[in-house]
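Dear support,

We are seeing what looks like truncated structure output for some complexes. This example has two components. We would appreciate it if you could run it in full and send us the complete token output so we can diff it against ours.
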Amino acid sequence: MGKIREGNFVTTTLESLIGWARKYSIFQYPFVTACCGMEYMATAASHFDIDRFGAGLTRFTPRQADVLFVVGTISHKLAPVLKKVYEQMTEPKWVVAFGTCTITGGIYDNYAAVQGIDAIIPVDIYIPGCPPRPETVLDALMKLQEKIQKEKQKWALRK
Amino acid sequence: MGLEEIEREFSLERIETADGIPTYYCEKEGLLPLMEKLKSDFEILLDITAVDYFGKREKRFEVVYLLLSLSQKIRLRIKVRLGEGEKVSTLSFLWKNANWLEREVYDMFGIEFEGHPDLRRILLYPEFKGHPLRKDYPLKKSQPRIKLLRSERE
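Here is the complete output from our reference environment:
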């Protein structure tokens, strides 16, 4: 590198550098099944603008996505599909449960609805609300970014 | 053809309902000739649904047909009482949409329609056991298709 003058470089760890890069380039896969989708769209569109957080690029194939947004009621009929979509995503991957129905089944306490998607796939962030306000969604997104930043890399050398 | 004429021909008795829609009970054997007659005036079959009076009535089911006449601007409700395991004739060759509506009633209540071309589940998955809108189906009994990571209810 030759001469590096004082003050012209910063030190960091590779781990936190990767976390920083990942948290600002979230490619999301919206798995939208119900009315929460409206609020999701409001968050994604220009007024609230999810792109300010580096999460503006939605991918419509799970193979290109980092974050799975499960937005809406998941029925038992649909459960195998959601599981397959999750399995198709490449590591590293995160899951956001969006709305009360997704978290607990909500008012649909019956034969049809899954009582929380964490019965099917692991979940990183829960967004409560029926439906959640866009502010809540953005808050959850920032919490997810925090989580991604702090994540320990699996390949890192450890004692 | 007026409703009075139909009432006379099929000896039906009108039942008063809160919504004011003319409502008639019909024997299951008499449904097909009645509906064939009604088809000429009532162009649209709005809905087929059912009610389960389990433990309250001798014949537990009631299949409800809701018809609409665009030319006469009236609606009509026909009800058929059915016991457990009793069948009623399909209307899928009179109104095409009866095909799917009857499949839904079969899916939710297990009521079979005689002569239906394709009577199988329409909303639930094929491996589902039982019919969830029957009153003797446990209210919160789910039938997961995949192995769950945790139990759904404590």
